[in-house]
Amino acid sequence: MPTEKDSQGGGKSGAGLSASASAGTGDAEARQALARKQASLERELADLHDDARMASVRSEVERISALLAALPDRLRRVRARGFQFHATLEQELDRLAQDWNLFKPQMAAAIEREYQRLAVSMARIQEQVLAGRQYMALPVALASERVDTAAAQLSNFKSEIQAASSSLQSMLTSASQGIRKAEKIIADAEAMLDELDAATFRLLPGEAPVAMSQAEWLRGKDDEVKGLLFITDHRLLFERKEEVVTKRKLLIFTEKKLVRELLFETPIGAVEKVAVERVGGLFKKQVVKVSFTSPPAPYAQALISLRGDPEEWVGIITRIITGDADKDRVAGPTQEQPAAPAEPRVIKCSGCGATLTVPIVKGMQSVKCEYCGTVMR
Hints:
Layout: H1 4-52, H2 55-80, H3 89-130, H4 132-135, H5 140-175, H6 177-198, E1 209-220, E2 223-232, E3 235-249, E4 252-267, E5 271-279, E6 285-292, E7 301-306, H7 310-322, E8 343-348, E9 355-360, E10 367-368, E11 375-376
Antiparallel strand pairs: 1-2, 1-7, 2-3, 3-4, 5-6, 6-7, 8-9, 10-11
Helix pairs in contact: 1-3, 1-5, 2-3, 2-6, 3-5
């Protein structure tokens, strides 16, 4: 029969087997984790091939080249549609093309130098990472140490690639700054002309559009109208453009429609002052405050919140008022004079015969009789 001593010995033996099994399980799990890390490093390495050859920078160079090549034709089209300002833009595009043709080969050479330098590092890192497959047969602690070393080298290489890419991108950004500025002018003109085609008003004969911005007219507390602000060489106009709910079911908006309507227009000569102002309570925002001569303007002032730089719009409106913008037209300066202060003029109504004293300003195309409503042009 088994003795107490035998029983105690058997217990110790069982505990030893259990510990060995536990150690074996832990070792297997550690090796699996190490194998997963090795596979992850190899995937990272494969993903770095395009980065090392500066693929994104090369792609951006070609994108800018294509963009620049398309700009002259885009400019011709907006000119044909009535965009008369930025008269020197054609010459600017010619200069930009010449500069780009000189810069592009230099950029290509810089990219190639970085790629050749990184290719040497890439070969060394690749050898270190792929050697990790052989480490799997080593004791776990030693294998883990060597895989960690390869991971650190790979991380350093990624930083090296990022530094090279950032340097090249900086060169590219500086060289393409003028191209991006010219493209924005043309893109803004395209957007403005498209909106004018869809607008509820029409330009007057001889009227030339200058600029447009998405805007909100702040008519009063909790009364903000979304729309578009247009400025031409004759008028300042605000057209409402926003979606309104036409049908609602419970709390869900089921149907909407786009509403467009001209809410105000005023001759450019009726603008007395334009400035940037901060409005609002806790969260103040910058708006353009336009003060008018009323009449002929329908309002004494308007507060307009614009998408973009309000100071830029103050400059645009000021150049139109002073006549400076006419010096930058493709057909040369017009015979228009700078906007003068409103001067009263006596007019006889063609409808009712009433005598009217009307302030006449630049951009004014019609007069409405205050007695019978007849509009005289």
